Structure formats: structure tokens, C-alpha cells
TrEMBL record:
This is Pyrroloquinoline-quinone synthase. The lineage of its organism: Bacteria, Bacillati, Actinomycetota, Actinomycetes, Streptosporangiales. InterPro entries: Haem_Oase-like_multi-hlx (IPR016084), PqqC (IPR011845), PqqC-like (IPR039068), Thiaminase-2/PQQC (IPR004305). Pathway: Cofactor biosynthesis; pyrroloquinoline quinone biosynthesis; Cofactor biosynthesis; thiamine diphosphate biosynthesis. The keyword Cytoplasm does not apply. It comes from Lipingzhangella halophila.
Length: 229
């Protein structure tokens, strides 16, 4: 890779990773065109639960490795967004309600019985990345969320229009992410541009984001294969 030192070219290199984002995966393309069966939607929801429940552990690893009080003060919010501040609240709970809306029981999702090995490997690799790499690389790996809001809006419209059997109340998770994802990714971009100044640090940040695109893509490969027609 060529040396990157200006903030503009660095941000451009990060944004260019959108070409590898999982909105382009054939499974997501079929989802957004209303072409998935109930079984496939259920398989996706049950498997993605493993990602959702792992995200706070990934963010806790970033907090544990981050020496900057100002960054931790804002980052900690992500954990509360997912876990809630009491039972019955938060993003993981909202995902379980999505599971119920697509016809799964909360028990069968919560006990991970549907999680396929490829999804488990990919998600575990993401958590392990955050534990073992520098905290700035881990922050950079979260930047896929820069690309998420468009996908979230498309997905909401697709679920409302093409899958009328899904109870709309169950879509609250995606509605919340429409404002949470831009807030979180703007903060992460601020942190990364402030802390990754050398060409080496910037290359590592882009590589971290590329790795994360691979995580998300691999999850869909595994789901696509497990629930093929
Ligand atoms: O449904 C999606 O397409 C999607 C993608 C991503 C992402 O791009 O990493 C996240 C989420 N959803 C999400 O719901 C979420 O909470 C989340 C946290 C993170 C992260 O890396 O910290 N990514 C994502």
C-alpha cells in the first residue's frame, strides 16, 4: 500500500472499504429484494444474535486497552446501548424481540443452538482482534458502521414491504441503529484520525477495517451456506 499521511487521503482510504461491505453480499442483496424464505430470515436473525451479544464484550476490550479517559467516557455508552441499564432494555433485548417477530422463541436464540461454526469463528475473531491489537486498530475495525445506515434504511423498507409476515414492532432494533450508528462511527472516525498520524498507523487502521469487512462477509457466507434453498 502507498504511504498515507494526509487526513483526507486516510479518510478516503477508510471510506473506500465500503466497496467490501456486506451490503454487497448476495445474501443481503436477496434479503433486500424480498427474496429470502422465512427459514432463511430466521437463520440470519438467530445467527446474527451471536454478533449482537458479542459486541459489548468487544467494546469492553477496547475500554480495557484504552488509556484515554475522554475516549472511554464516550465509548462506554456503546455497552449500555446493547446491554441496557436494566433487564428488558437495550439492543440485545431488542434483537430478541426481532427474533420473536420472525417466529423464533427467545430461548432457542438465547441458547445459541442455531449458531453455525463459521459465524462463531468470525465473531470470535472480531472479539479476539479487539483484545489483542492496539486499541486504535480495534476502534478502526468498528468503522464498518460508517457504511451501515444506508443498509439499515434499505433493510427496514425491505422488511416492511416484502416480508409482511414479520411483526413491525420487532423492527425497533434497526430504527434505533439509524441514529446510533452515525453517532458511533463519527466518534470512531474522530478518534482514529486524531490518533493514527503516521503512515504505518494509518495503514494498520485501514487493514483493521478490511479485516472487519472480512468478518461480516464470512458470517454471511456461513449463513448463506447453512440455509441454502
Ligand atoms: O446489521 C448490520 O448490517 C450491522 C452492521 C454492523 C457493522 O457494520 O459492523 C453493526 C451492526 N449492524 C450493529 O447492529 C451493531 O450494533 C454494530 C456494532 C458494531 C461494531 O463494530 O462495534 N458494528 C455493528
Amino acid at each position: 500500500m502507498t504511504a498515507l499521511t494526509g487526513t483526507d487521503s486516510f479518510v478516503a482510504a477508510l471510506r473506500a472499504q465500503s466497496q467490501r461491505y456486506h451490503d454487497l453480499h448476495p445474501f443481503h442483496v436477496r434479503m433486500n429484494h424480498g427474496r429470502l424464505s422465512r427459514r432463511q430470515i430466521r437463520g440470519w436473525v438467530a445467527n446474527r444474535f451471536y454478533y449482537q451479544e458479542s459486541i459489548p464484550r468487544k467494546d469492553a476490550a477496547i475500554l480495557a486497552n484504552c488509556p484515554e479517559r475522554a475516549v472511554r467516557r464516550r465509548w462506554v455508552r456503546r455497552i449500555l446501548d446493547h446491554d441496557g441499564t436494566e433487564a428488558g432494555e437495550g439492543g440485545i433485548e431488542a434483537w430478541l424481540r426481532l427474533a420473536e417477530a420472525v417466529g423464533l422463541s427467545r430461548e432457542e436464540v438465547d441458547d445459541e443452538r442455531h449458531v453455525v461454526s463459521g459465524v462463531r469463528f468470525a465473531v470470535d475473531a472480531y472479539v479476539s482482534f479487539a483484545r489483542t491489537r492496539t486499541w486504535t486498530e480495534a476502534v478502526a475495525s468498528s468503522l464498518t458502521e460508517l457504511f451501515a445506515p444506508d443498509l439499515m434504511a434499505t433493510r427496514l423498507a425491505a422488511f416492511e414491504n416484502s416480508y409482511p409476515w414479520i411483526d413491525r414492532e420487532g423492527l425497533a432494533y434497526f430504527r434505533a441503529r439509524l441514529h446510533q450508528a452515525p453517532r458511533d462511527s463519527e466518534h470512531a472516525l474522530e478518534v482514529v484520525t486524531e490518533h493514527c498520524r503516521s503512515a504505518d498507523e494509518q495503514e494498520r487502521a485501514v487493514a483493521a477495517l478490511s479485516f472487519k469487512c472480512d468478518v461480516l462477509w464470512s458470517m454471511l457466507d456461513a449463513i448463506d451456506r447453512a440455509y441454502a434453498d
